[in-house]
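Lecture 7, part 2: worked example. A protein chain together with NAI.
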Amino acid sequence: AKEPVRVLVTGAAGQIGYALVPMIARGIMLGADQPVILHMLDIPPAAEALNGVKMELVDAAFPLLKGVVATTDVVEACTGVNVAVMVGGFPRKEGMERKDVMSKNVSIYKSQASALEKHAAANCKVLVVANPANTNALILKEFAPSIPEKNITCLTRLDHNRALGQISERLNVQVSDVKNVIIWGNHSSTQYPDVNHATVRTPAGEKPVRELVADDKWLNSEFITTVQQRGAAIIKARKFSSALSAASSACDHIRDWVLGTPEGTWVSMGVYSDGSYNVPSGLIYSFPVTCKNGEWSIVQGLSIDELSRKKLDLTAQELSEEKDLAYSCLS
Ligand code: NAI
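Predicted complex, written out as structure tokens:
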């Protein structure tokens, strides 16, 4: 039998946490033959609710779940973890300035970075979900210098999956037959959902999405804004932000990272830029990646047309500004 893997979920008493922990305990994140020990962290005001989630995990009698640590102590939460899914953060409240929200999250991610660096298992893989996801991940990287930068990522897989969903609805094809969309840049409304290399499996072989949709106007405007604004549309409909889709996409992100992407398929991940596609290095930016043996690599050599170039640069610009804002909160 396999040794259990320890998975940390911060903000585990929140809405995404509540959707995510049962998925992990069912083997959706790491595989149906992989036992897990869940580490759940939240803050003291949520301690009672967190304990309620732990009670439900016991009640659900998940065969793969070999233990549960539910705590408000960051060190206890981080100790020995192999995978860390960072969902906890400070939400933007009405009337708050961007800088105030950033400042709260910078201090959370700075201290959690140190705890992970000191106490997590060697080679721990980190996924930041909490917003501003890219910049929280960057702060985590800066304050955990001994964790390899390749191990620190942020979630744009939800945006990627939303793009697949929109194409599948538009063409009335199965979502599993659509692949290789790309989310470039920030997990924000400046992200660029790119279909220029996306394909659909059809009875007549693989076809480019651009050929099948044949409505460039829709692809170049409405499709892009629908994906960019989908988070806001969910809040409007549900009065709460996306939770089941965020949790499911977080599982997709870690599963593909650990177990590998299928041959010929790439996915989108926010990773530390190495300057590929002339994206400034030193930002956590969403790129198309393939994964093998537990490591991601950026897909190279894709053609970038003029419209795309502008959009890649615009979202990089926003990330540089967020980075400056985050640094101004540190001093
Ligand atoms: P929520 O407010 O329901 O839950 C957040 C939880 O984090 C709360 O239980 C809170 O007590 C906890 N928390 C706050 N500070 C903490 C700290 N220092 N340490 C540990 N836990 C802490 O929010 P929800 O809906 O679960 O969303 C969580 C985050 O995920 C938000 O920042 C949201 O914007 C983000 N998000 C990101 C998405 C993405 O695709 N990257 C998609 C959807 C949401």
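Residues 10-11, 13-17, 41-43, 46, 87-91, 108, 129-131, 133, 155, 158, 187, 241-243, 246 surround NAI (CB under 6 Å). The chain has a mean pLDDT of 97. Keep this in mind for problem set question 3.
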